[in-house]
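Here is one such protein, fold included:

. . .
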Amino acid sequence: MSAGKRVINIDELKLEHFQQGEKYESRGVRVGPLIGAKQLGYSYDVLPPGKTGCPFHSHRAEEEMFFIVRGRGLLRYGAETRTVRAGDFICCPTGGPETAHQIINDSGEPLEMISVSTMMPAEVCEYPDSGKVGAFGGEGEQRLRHMTRADQARDYWDGE
């Protein structure tokens, strides 16, 4: 892939609209595949006023970083909440509920951000607000995506 195909400008991105219920909404694009990224995931997202793009969650395998390009909002991180604004870098390392994170646009203007994450072959995410646990891995038709409630855990030997 030539150097020219490894570069794309924000103004060239074709953003796709996403909405789930009243709370979750964004326009965004996964940039990594467009520029040939292999081990890092890159995304550009715009959150409308009053919306968030994803549930409060933590990662056991993938580390994430966010950069606020324009606007301001709230960062929920573990048990804390703080204001974030244009120019802020946000580090979300792996861990449990203490590293759970979510960015919410509580302002009257769009919040634009870039996210970068390590692309691990398998991942476990925890969702403290809903008590869910998700297991993800593989590619294509062999891809695993399994969500369950933490209180529905089974013993290792159950059914054996």
